[in-house]
Amino acid sequence: MIRIEHIGIAVSNLEDAIQTWETLLNTTCYKREVVEAQKVDTAFFQVGESKIELLGAIAPDSVIATYIEKKGQGMHHVAYEVEDIRAEMIRLKEAGFQLLQDEPTSGADNKLVAFLHPKSSNGVLVELCQTKK
Ligand code: ZN
């Protein structure tokens, strides 16, 4: 794996959270993007080599709405950039990790993404991401 690409944070009010994180990181949000498939609105911040991705629900049945209902706001996932997402998915599956999907899907910020079940990785939801070429 290449690096931590971003850390995803689940927030209940995206507009408020953007202001908070702009002040905290002393930088401006460089991208907003709705991912319809997951019913989330996202906001990205660059922090050195990595990013922070704020995730807000756009529907009551969004994965983020469900997450916040269960666990409250906070760190949602850690995303690792990989060279070849399909090869990594096969490698991890063979190593005994439980993947949440068989095929990568289209994520925010021009990425192919896939998630590992948190029970495979000590309670951390892991995202693999590969920049679309
Ligand atoms: Zn992410």
What do these coordinates show?
23% of the residues lie in helices and 39% in strands. The protein contains three helices and eight strands. The radius of gyration is 14 Å and the shape is globular. It has a single domain (3-131), classed as 2,3-Dihydroxybiphenyl 1,2-Dioxygenase, domain 1 (Roll). With 133 residues, it is an alpha+beta fold. The chain has an eight-stranded mixed sheet. The chain has helices spanning 14-25, 63-71, 85-94; strands at residues 3-10, 31-35, 40-47, 50-57, 74-81, 105-107, 111-116, 126-131. Bound molecules: zinc ion. Zinc ion binds at residues 6, 8, 53, 77, 79, 127. Residues 6, 8, 53, 77, 79, 127 line the site of zinc ion (ZN).
The 3D shape can be described as globular
Low-confidence stretches: none
Strand content: 35-45%
Biggest β-sheet description: 8 strands, mixed
* CATH class division: Alpha Beta
Distance between the termini: 17 Å
Helix content: 10-25%
Number of extended strands: 8
Kindly give the count of domains: 1
* Count of alpha and pi helical runs: 3
Whole-number mean pLDDT = 96
CATH topology: 2,3-Dihydroxybiphenyl 1,2-Dioxygenase, domain 1
Q: What is the architecture at the second tier of CATH?
A: Roll
> Cα-atom Rg, whole angstroms?
14 Å
Ligands bound to this protein structure: zinc ion
| CATH evolutionary superfamily | 2,3-Dihydroxybiphenyl 1,2-Dioxygenase, domain 1
Give, in spatial order, the strands making up the sheet with the most strands: 2-3-4-1-5-8-7-6
Structural class: alpha+beta
**Topology as H/E string?**
EHEEEHEHEEE
